[in-house]
């Protein structure tokens, strides 16, 4: 079957340009016909599973646990509304799903032994018995009569969809064996997935992540749709349903692409790329693979779309060295390598050798096939990695380390001193606005690393609580501009909201320099008499220095102007500046002749997400200007300390 040719004056940009939604729908598979990965009955595959993968998975799947399954009480659900605690409920919730996914792979690795199938049966039955699959922080169904979930009106959030996806992939893997071992289990699994995932996706138009009412879309859209598609293709009972899900999914994904900047940047930060652009990849892989048979064996090349290719490359732009990444917005500075195989597959689909090289270098850090690395490590990602012979044959040749990336859509630049090397300085700087998804009040902040070691940093985010996404968000220290590398006027910090944005922004990079310049006046509210605050941050490869230039023009003299800087390292005062760092990667911060008063605030870290990135302490350097007046300028220069 031939595919429509786009208008000669316009290259295809969206799925609908490659094939209209109705034609995608007509090509949807009949229920149960789509089986893209080896099932447990394919003993030739499972008996030949790579030894390294078997060893890695053995950590969590080698034997059916003898311990009872953990109870998930209603009071754990209520704890979120009562105290803001997310962890009491979520730890048990995710542990159940991790255990079930591990049991499913164990049954495939070792053959469908009765004890392993019993473990799977128990897990499936427990999940179907849960009143709802939505997390307390996302629940919408029960507001009329309290915060507990209403089983008759399920909320289709990230983890309802992900639970459905877990069960759908489990049915692909073990469905035949379960139907023999305990026939009602598979029937109940498929019915519950239809009720909690497929029907809400089709029957309700008020989910904001559908984008039907002009909403700006983010990771919720692709994360949910990446699970809805397999839920429908595996668990639906008629082709009308698979067609309807397919057509709606195509429209939703196009609206998501409409919200993405052309440069492919992820304004939610690198931590959410894995469930934003990476989930988009899974959506497209499922969609094109499932529809291909009805389209003559080959679906339109969805991976040739320029934006799909650009979105794949964001991890390269955000990479500093090793497992260190630029972590603007919510997310840790150290990123686990759990999705390296997916990135490699994405690189193969888009023909991007740098992506494949980056993914292989990620894997060099250790075994990845572990269910205990991430609470939302989906069964599909593990199965796809196991089945990927190209990935298992890939060899590591070091990270590609591009010289620089300019992302004007989100006003971000990242640059290193030398392409292909972590030696020397690395700079990342951002403009943007304070209404971004997973926003921190951080317009004009920057990150500086030396020899791959972060020196001036973004703290990241602590473990989520009720306050993280509620009206108290900007009382949390990690969200405030005074705990970023940003200026402060008379104790006033930047304010949240899209209107508090950078203006007159230039983001640039060339052979010798890379940086960003911008106007920050609008980031404060009207109580701060700022006519102008210009900031320019630049990496100069010839001088091997990073400079930060600030100049201000106020309506009246300021009592106090402070430049805040964050570091996890020891700070030592020296004449005219500071020494930052503890080892070979030590830098001098020169004050350019300004007699700053130096204040140092130590923040002891106890949160696990923070200590993973920084260890036990972060330090905030507060440089107070001696005579700020109504106008002034300063220059900070960061250079390697050779003493």
| Unreliable spans | 1-8
How many helix segments? Answer: 20
Strand order of the largest sheet: 11-12-13-14-21-18-17-16
Describe the biggest sheet? Answer: 8 strands, antiparallel
**Strand portion:** 15-25%
Query: What integer value in Å does the Rg equal?
Result: 26 Å
| Number of E-type strands | 21
Cα-to-Cα separation, first versus last residue: 70 Å
Structural class: alpha+beta
General shape = globular
How much helix, percentage-wise, in residues? 25-40%
Overall mean pLDDT stands at 92
Explain what this protein looks like in three dimensions.
By secondary structure, the chain is α+β, with helices and mostly antiparallel strands. Helix content is 36%, strand content 19%. The chain contains 20 helices and 21 strands. An eight-stranded antiparallel sheet has the order 11-12-13-14-21-18-17-16, with no helix packed on it. The protein has a five-stranded antiparallel sheet with strand order 3-4-5-7-8, with no helix packed on it. Strands 9-15-20-19 form a four-stranded antiparallel sheet, with no helix packed on it. Helix 6 (87-109) runs parallel beside helix 8 (158-181), helix 7 (114-129) crosses helix 8 (158-181) and helix 16 packs antiparallel against helix 17 (353-363). The longest helix has 24 residues, at 158-181. The termini are far apart.
């Amino acid at each position: 079957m031939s595919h429509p040719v786009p208008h000669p004056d316009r290259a295809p940009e969206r799925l609908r340009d490659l094939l209209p939604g109705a034609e995608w729908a007509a090509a949807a598979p009949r229920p149960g016909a789509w089986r893209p990965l080896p099932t447990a009955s394919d003993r030739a595959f499972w008996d030949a599973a790579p030894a390294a993968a078997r060893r890695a998975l053995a950590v969590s799947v080698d034997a059916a646990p003898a311990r009872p399954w953990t109870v998930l009480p209603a009071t754990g659900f209520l704890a979120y509304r009562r105290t803001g605690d997310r962890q009491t409920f979520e730890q048990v919730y995710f542990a159940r799903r991790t255990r079930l996914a591990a049991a499913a792979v164990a049954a495939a690795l070792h053959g469908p032994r009765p004890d392993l199938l019993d473990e799977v049966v128990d897990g499936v039955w427990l999940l179907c018995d849960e009143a709802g699959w939505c997390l307390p922080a996302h629940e919408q169904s029960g507001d009329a009569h309290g915060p507990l979930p209403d089983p008759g009106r399920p909320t289709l959030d990230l983890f309802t969809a992900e639970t459905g996806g877990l069960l759908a992939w489990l049915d692909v893997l073990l469905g035949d064996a379960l139907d023999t071992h305990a026939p009602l289990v598979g029937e109940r699994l498929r019915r519950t997935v239809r009720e909690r995932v497929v029907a809400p996706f089709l029957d309700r138009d008020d989910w904001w992540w559908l984008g039907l009412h002009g909403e700006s879309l983010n990771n919720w859209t692709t994360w949910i749709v990446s699970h809805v598609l397999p839920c429908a293709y595996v668990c639906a009972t008629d082709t009308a349903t698979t067609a309807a899900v397919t057509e709606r999914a195509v429209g939703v994904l196009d609206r998501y692409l409409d919200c993405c900047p052309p440069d492919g940047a992820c304004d939610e930060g690198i931590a959410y790329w894995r469930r934003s652009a990476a989930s988009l990849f899974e959506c497209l892989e499922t969609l094109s693979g499932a529809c291909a048979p009805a389209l003559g064996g080959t679906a339109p090349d969805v991976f040739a779309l320029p934006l799909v290719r650009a979105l794949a490359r964001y991890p390269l732009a955000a990479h500093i060295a090793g497992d260190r990444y630029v972590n603007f917005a919510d997310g840790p500075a150290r990123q686990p390598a759990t999705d390296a195989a997916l990135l490699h597959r994405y690189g193969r689909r888009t023909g991007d050798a740098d992506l494949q090289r980056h993914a292989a270098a990620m894997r060099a850090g250790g075994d990845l096939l572990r269910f205990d690395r991430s609470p939302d490590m989906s069964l599909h990602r593990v199965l796809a990695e196991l089945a990927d012979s190209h990935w298992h044959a890939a060899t590591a040749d070091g990270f590609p380390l591009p010289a620089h990336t300019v992302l004007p859509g989100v006003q971000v630049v990242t640059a290193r001193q030398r392409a292909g090397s972590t030696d020397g300085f690395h700079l990342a700087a951002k403009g943007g606005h304070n209404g971004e998804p997973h926003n921190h009040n951080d317009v004009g902040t920057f990150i500086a690393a030396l020899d791959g070691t972060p020196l001036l940093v973004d703290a990241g985010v602590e473990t989520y609580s009720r306050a993280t996404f509620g009206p108290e968000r900007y009382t949390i220290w990690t969200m405030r501009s005074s705990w970023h590398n940003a200026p402060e006027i008379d104790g006033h910090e930047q304010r949240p909201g899209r209107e508090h944005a950078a203006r007159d922004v230039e983001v640039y990079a060339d052979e010798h320099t890379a940086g960003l310049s911008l106007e920050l006046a609008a980031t404060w509210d009207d109580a701060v008499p700022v006519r102008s605050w210009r900031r320019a941050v630049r990496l100069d490869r010839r001088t091997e220095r990073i400079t930060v230039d600030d100049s201000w023009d106020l309506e009246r003299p300021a009592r106090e102007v402070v430049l805040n800087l964050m570091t996890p390292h020891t700070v030592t005062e020296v004449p005219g500046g500071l020494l930052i760092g503890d080892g070979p990667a030590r830098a001098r911060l020169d004050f350019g002749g300004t007699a700053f008063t130096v204040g140092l605030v130590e923040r002891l870290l106890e949160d696990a997400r923070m200590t993973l990135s920084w260890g036990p302490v972060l330090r905030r350097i507060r440089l107070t200007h001696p005579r700020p007046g109504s106008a002034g300028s300063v220059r900070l220069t960061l250079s390697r300390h050779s003493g």
